[in-house]
């Protein structure tokens, strides 16, 4: 049961890692040729990296909480950690896909208005 319970956390971590790798590759392919692409995607890249770090942290917390329950710990703290982690996986981590899509949209939508329009 513990491995089945940990699987969503590991899957979430793998997804976040793949998104960061995809974003890094896109930035390398498109940021050097047009530095505006790097600037336009920078915040979304940082958000993706933050989600990766959080996914890693939640995977570690879930692993520890599952291990403590297996050892017979009855403290609701561990169940609450798993519940909160599942919330992260279903309600926050999917935002990474939106960040990746925005990053890949490039600088054109941001740079469409001339400076005089501001």
What does the overall shape look like? elongated
Q: What is the residue-averaged pLDDT?
A: 95
The amount of helix comes to over 70%
Q: From the helix content, strand content and strand pairing, which structural class follows?
A: mainly alpha
* Helix count from the secondary structure assignment: 5
Count of discrete structural domains: 1
Unreliable sequence segments: none
Write up what this structure looks like.
The protein has helices at residues 2-31, 35-70, 76-92, 95-104, 108-111. The protein is mostly helical and 118 residues long. The chain has one domain. The protein is elongated, with a radius of gyration of 19 Å. The N and C termini lie far apart (58 Å).
Q: How does the SSE layout of this entry go?
A:
Layout: H1 2-31, H2 35-70, H3 76-92, H4 95-104, H5 108-111
Helix pairs in contact: 1-2, 1-4, 2-3, 2-4
Features of this protein?
0% strand; mainly alpha; 118 residues; 82% helix
Concise account of the structure shown:
With 118 residues, the protein is mostly helical. The protein has helices at residues 2-31, 35-70, 76-92, 95-104, 108-111.
């Amino acid at each position: 049961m513990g491995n089945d319970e940990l699987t969503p956390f590991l899957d979430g971590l793998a997804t976040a890692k793949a998104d960061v790798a995809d974003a890094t590759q896109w930035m390398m392919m498109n940021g050097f040729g047009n530095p505006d692409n790097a600037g336009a995607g920078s915040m979304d890249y940082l958000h993706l990296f933050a989600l990766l770090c959080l996914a890693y942290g939640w995977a570690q917390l879930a692993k520890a909480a599952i291990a403590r329950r297996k050892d017979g710990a009855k403290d609701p703290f561990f169940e609450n950690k798993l519940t909160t982690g599942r919330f992260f996986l279903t309600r926050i981590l999917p935002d990474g896909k939106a960040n990746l899509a925005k990053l890949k949209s490039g600088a054109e939508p941001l740079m469409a208005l001339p400076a005089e329009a501001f």
